């Protein structure tokens, strides 16, 4: 255990303790929800749609995050399966959370009759701001930090305030505030996404894929600084490739964080980040070449479901108005002919 200077418990109600970590994650979810609702209004998507998505997506994300973590640390759980369910003891992974949330979203969007790529584009800024805020939960819990650094690096080089520097003192040793690095990276990513989504060249799905590219680039470099990475035993050529790609960080004076040899020689999140970047770029190119992304981000979004099926009634309402105008025109024409 580290030397916690901040109390992880915000307040207690009787025997129930409310942790800052939960409050911070709750705040992240609400901010992300409000951002999606605001953008959804531009396309006529009701706020209830995103509220239901959040209610379904959060549990799915937690389940996915836990399954991902347990799958890569199975030796720690195989002899005591009950511990698999003890998420309050820690052990979740952000990539697993994204996988769980995306699977849930796919079926939810399909049920509502919306195109998957159009809605995830709207949700992309919500995801990245949620991650930016959520990382501060790691700060309060004094976890997910990087390798050792001098106190002067934090105070004089990074010019961090005392409350961050002091919290990075774990059992007498100062560490990289990797939570802060990732939070700031995500905030920069949010700004980029907000600018990109107003550009006419953006096609359906490309904002969502841009989110994954941006986040994965940052995660690749930041992950190697951490001391709690999940890993696996891979071929030496792959380990050498990962280290070579990370070498610019070494040139800037950063050092690799500790990786438990029991986990392996390659950090899972780094390899996954590389794979996601490659796949996202390929998808953007292929979807453009094949015409799968003919729709642009700014184009109207409609549901294939009728109001009776629980879908959007925007198209039906427009059709009713159009029919009414046509009927009026026909009646008017008929009246004029009779007068003649």
UniProtKB/TrEMBL annotation:
Alphabetical list of HAMAP family matching this protein: Lgt
GO molecular function, one term: phosphatidylglycerol-prolipoprotein diacylglyceryl transferase activity
The protein's annotated pathway: Protein modification; lipoprotein biosynthesis (diacylglyceryl transfer)
Keyword Transferase recorded: yes
Renumbered residue ranges of the record's region Disordered: 300-340
Residues that, per the record, bind a 1,2-diacyl-sn-glycero-3-phospho-(1'-sn-glycerol): 135
Protein keywords: Cell membrane, Membrane, Transferase, Transmembrane, Transmembrane helix
EC code(s) of this entry: 2.5.1.145
Sequence ranges of Polar residues compositional bias: 328-340
Predominant cellular place of this UniProt entry's protein: membrane
Entry protein name: Phosphatidylglycerol--prolipoprotein diacylglyceryl transferase
Protein task: Catalyzes the transfer of the diacylglyceryl group from phosphatidylglycerol to the sulfhydryl group of the N-terminal cysteine of a prolipoprotein, the first step in the formation of mature lipoproteins.
Organism field: Paenibacillus polygoni
């Amino acid at each position: 255990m580290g030397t916690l200077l901040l109390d992880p418990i915000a307040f207690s109600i009787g025997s129930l303790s409310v942790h800052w970590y939960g409050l911070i994650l709750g705040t992240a979810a609400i901010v992300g929800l409000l951002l999606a609702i605001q953008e959804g209004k531009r396309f006529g998507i009701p706020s209830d749609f995103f509220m239901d998505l959040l209610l379904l997506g959060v549990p799915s994300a937690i389940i996915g995050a836990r399954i991902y973590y347990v799958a890569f640390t199975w030796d720690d759980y195989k002899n005591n399966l009950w511990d698999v369910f003890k998420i309050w003891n820690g052990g979740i992974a952000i990539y697993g959370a994204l996988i769980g949330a995306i699977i849930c979203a796919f079926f939810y969007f399909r049920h509502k009759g919306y195109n998957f790529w159009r809605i995830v584009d709207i949700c992309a800024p919500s995801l990245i701001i949620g991650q930016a805020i959520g990382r501060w939960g790691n700060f309060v819990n004094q976890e997910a930090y990087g390798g050792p650094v001098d106190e002067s690096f934090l105070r004089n080089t990074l010019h961090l305030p005392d409350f961050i520097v002091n919290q990075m003192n774990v059992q007498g040793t100062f560490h990289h505030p990797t939570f802060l690095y990732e939070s700031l990276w995500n905030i920069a990513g949010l700004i980029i996404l907000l600018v990109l989504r107003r550009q006419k060249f953006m096609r359906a799905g490309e904002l969502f894929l841009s989110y994954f590219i941006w986040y994965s680039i940052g995660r690749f470099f930041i992950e190697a600084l951490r001391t709690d990475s999940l890993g696996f035993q891979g071929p030496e050529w792959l380990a050498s490739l990962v280290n070579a790609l990370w070498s610019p960080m070494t040139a800037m004076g950063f050092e690799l964080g500790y990786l438990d040899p029991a986990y392996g020689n390659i950090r899972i999140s780094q390899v996954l980040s590389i794979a996601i970047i490659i796949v996202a770029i390929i998808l953007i190119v292929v979807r453009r070449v094949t015409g799968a992304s003919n729709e642009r981000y700014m184009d109207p979004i409609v549901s294939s479901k009728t109001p009776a099926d629980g879908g959007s009634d925007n198209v039906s309402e427009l059709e009713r108005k159009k029919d009414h105008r046509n009927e009026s025109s026909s009646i008017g024409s008929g009246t004029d002919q009779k007068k003649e």
